Amino acid sequence: xxxxxxELIFITLGIMTPxxxxxxxxxxxSFGAEIFCTMRDGGNDHESSWDAAYSYIKKQKGGIFxxxxxxxxxxxxxxxxxxxxxxxxxxxxLDQLHPNRQLIRDLEKExxxxxxxxxxxxxxxxxxxxxxxxxxxEITDITLDRYSY
Length: 149
Prior knowledge:
Elements: H1 2-41, H2 46-61, H3 69-82, H4 101-141
């Protein structure tokens, strides 16, 4: 009977803990959205509103793992969409939470292309230096006599 009670307590804790953590996460995202939207509606710029909301969400999350900016932005977006009636004035600000992904991909492609070109130039330079050394070795083996015609 005593073992059954312990098992029942552990099972209850096992079920309740994830639900409680999920509720805290949703509430942090919801209040983070409220912070962001209220500050934006009050005339604050994106950066200060985002910093305030993100720091609140990070603080409320706690635990070992930190909330990434992408996760926090997704939580705010989710809260605004879920509670559309409450945050109807905030929909126009959501695009600034998610920067232009196509632009980011294009910049990453450009950076990779430049890195590849730099590697190719370095490889070409090494190849030319090696050929030059081989040519110099061949020339030094031949003795040149300036008076031989």
